[in-house]
Amino acid sequence: MAATESLARSVVESGQRAAARSNTSAGTETRSATFRVWRGAGTTGELVDYSTKVSEGMVVLDAIHQIQAETATDLAVRWNCKAGKCGSCSAEINGMPRLMCMTRLSELDLHKPVTVEPMRAFPLLKDLVTDVSSNFRAKKRIRRFTPRPPDAPDGTWRMAQADADRVQEFRKCIECFLCQDVCHVLRDHQLHEQFVGPRLLVHAAQLEMHPLDVLDRTEELKDNHGIGYCNITKCCTKVCPENITITDNAIIPLKERVIDRNYDPLGKLVRLLRGSKSSNADNGEVR
Asked: Would you tell me the crossing angle of helices 252-262 and 197-208 to the nearest 10 degrees?
């Protein structure tokens, strides 16, 4: 009991400190704004209105911290860096998946209540906190980076700069899972175990397109990772806070590899002929 009370007190104090930091960095002129915040756990809950003072320069996370410090001390919210780099404070703001720390109040119409809800694609734990563990389970199913042997005696590799640059975009991902949240396959159909989702397809593209990686994950993308579920709506690209071109640069090239391997009749014929030639060569036959 004492440990629980200590934890609750620590959470409240943390929110108060965050609110104080927001006050020192924001402008001095204030106005009142209403935030309609989801409160609840599991499958039950409701939107609750909170009124608080806001000022120039504040972001949604600042307002949530202020509400937490003033009137809703038990409000659960996940956050860490408040700099758009940890991906922890993902939520749905006025129905749009966004990072709370990167959504300025100046971008919103404060004449109407600002709705702040948890991501809908994942099970709700409490208030604004969801269970995103399905993403980590899916990541374990993708075979790890496996480089070829070094090209030089000193243990280094040689590669073209263009090939190295191609995968750098994918490394910007902060795993906020906003792309997962907006994906209709996960959001509307809850196919978390059948479809790894755009975040993990970006991860797979990072491995598949890496100039040193030697594994071929094409069949796994088709059979185990559910790439066929994606119908290229580009909604994941639109919500990415790191501006990764998820659809065009990651998902479509992977889908093309799967199609070339499994559905291109000419490609199948070429592979069949190559296989026959290899088999004949192994048997010592020359044609």
From this structure: 70
User: What residues contact residue 179 under an 8 Å CB cut-off, 6+ apart?
Assistant: 197, 198, 199, 202, 236, 237, 239, 240, 246
Question: Both tokens of residue 197?
Answer: 């989702």
pTM score of the predicted model: 0.82
Q: Is the pLDDT of residue 198 over 80?
A: yes
User: pLDDT for 102-112, tens place per residue?
Assistant: 999 999 999 99
Token code pair at residue 115: 């709705």
SS3 284: coil
The region, left, alpha or beta by phi > 0 then psi within -120 to 50, assigned to residue 243 is left
- Kindly state the tokens that stand for 134: 């399905």
Q: Compute CA distances 241 → 83, 185, 209, whole Å.
A: 11, 20, 22
Contact 143, 217 (CB under 8 A): yes
Dihedral, 154, 156, 157, 161 alpha carbons, nearest 10: -130
Q: Are 72 and 50 in contact (CB under 8 A)?
A: yes
